[in-house]
């Protein structure tokens, strides 16, 4: 539903609402009351994020069958430059060798980037097409998975699981416990050490999830506000002023946001490498 057919608040709320499936009656009641609940699935987030992941796999598989060793084509050169970029960051930020880290970093960078890229598609386009297909003018479709906190928290939790796994694998169970007892102030301040280290460890997944979510959610809001300029103000003769202004603001924010989505994917990848590198450091 476009901005012309609803008020400002209703328009923004509609675009920021997920298409949610309740898993029980209580969850459905909570959703009807506009509340979040654990027993519900954000179908649009799940579908779009998995489709984008599948797209990456398909493109990689197709490229793998067409690799050229002599004079590679433009797309192969582009992909190789991304591989070099990720490989360089892994070499610089990760101590030692673990064959999982580089593929993991590449997967995170590409997946987060394509999910962020959905923010550059005109905000009304895909929801409008979904409403045409379903025949439901109130159909919800939130197309940017990384503006859903569930997505960023899920990815950060997966990385945190690997951090815990490698902490215990490299340092052993007692070494992991000692990290909480004696780091950073030694054996005479064990209670303080435990609190400090607990905060340090918990802040890792939170910093990953909240940074990405906050930046992408804010970017989505700006696109919605710019869309409102053309939708609610460009009426009659005023359209000759507001419509060009909207186009100019849209273009400017799109160019700037292209940098933002790339930077956020890069930060998520680098922090993952750094945190896993710390987990591999026996002296930490």
TrEMBL record:
Gene Ontology terms describing biological process: proton motive force-driven plasma membrane ATP synthesis
SUPFAM superfamilies reported in the protein's UniProt record: F1F0 ATP synthase subunit A
Compartment(s): Cell membrane; Membrane
Bilayer disposition of the protein: Multi-pass membrane protein
Transmembrane segments: 38-61, 100-118, 149-168, 219-242, 254-278
PROSITE patterns: ATPASE_A
One Pfam family recorded for the sequence: ATP-synt_A
Keywords tagged on the record: ATP synthesis, Cell membrane, CF(0), Hydrogen ion transport, Ion transport, Membrane, Transmembrane, Transmembrane helix, Transport
Gene3D superfamilies found in the cross-reference section: ATP synthase, F0 complex, subunit A
GO cellular component: plasma membrane; proton-transporting ATP synthase complex
A molecular function GO annotation: proton-transporting ATP synthase activity, rotational mechanism
HAMAP family per UniProt: ATP_synth_a_bact
Family classification: Belongs to the ATPase A chain family.
Purpose of the protein: Key component of the proton channel; it plays a direct role in the translocation of protons across the membrane.
Classification via NCBIfam families: ATP_synt_6_or_A, PRK05815.1-1
Name assigned to this protein: ATP synthase subunit a
Annotated gene: atpB
């Amino acid at each position: 539903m476009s901005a012309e057919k609803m008020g400002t608040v209703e328009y923004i709320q509609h675009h920021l609402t997920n298409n949610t499936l309740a898993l029980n009656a209580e969850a459905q009641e909570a959703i009807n009351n506009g509340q979040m609940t654990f027993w519900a699935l954000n179908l649009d987030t799940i579908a779009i994020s998995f489709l984008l992941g599948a797209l990456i796999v398909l493109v990689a598989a197709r490229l793998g069958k067409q690799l050229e060793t002599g004079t590679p084509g433009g797309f192969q050169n582009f992909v190789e430059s991304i591989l070099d970029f990720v490989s360089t960051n892994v070499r610089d930020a990760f101590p030692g060798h673990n064959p999982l880290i580089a593929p993991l970093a590449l997967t995170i960078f590409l997946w987060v980037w394509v999910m962020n890229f959905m923010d550059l598609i005109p905000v009304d386009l895909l929801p409008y097409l979904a409403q045409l297909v379903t025949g439901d003018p109130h159909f919800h479709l939130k197309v940017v998975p990384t503006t859903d906190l569930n997505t960023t928290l899920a990815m950060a939790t997966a990385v945190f699981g690997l951090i815990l796994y490698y902490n215990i694998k490299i340092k052993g169970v007692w070494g992991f416990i000692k990290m909480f007892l004696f780091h950073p102030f030694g054996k005479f301040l064990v209670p303080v050490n435990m609190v400090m280290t607990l905060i340090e460890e918990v802040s890792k997944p939170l910093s990953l999830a909240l940074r990405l979510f906050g930046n992408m959610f804010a970017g989505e809001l700006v696109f919605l506000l710019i869309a409102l300029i053309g939708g609610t103000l460009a009426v009659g003769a005023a359209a000759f002023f507001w419509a060009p202004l909207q186009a100019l603001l849209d273009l400017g924010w799109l160019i700037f946001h292209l940098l933002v989505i790339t930077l956020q994917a890069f930060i998520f990848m680098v922090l993952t490498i750094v945190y896993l590198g710390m987990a591999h450091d026996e002296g930490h």
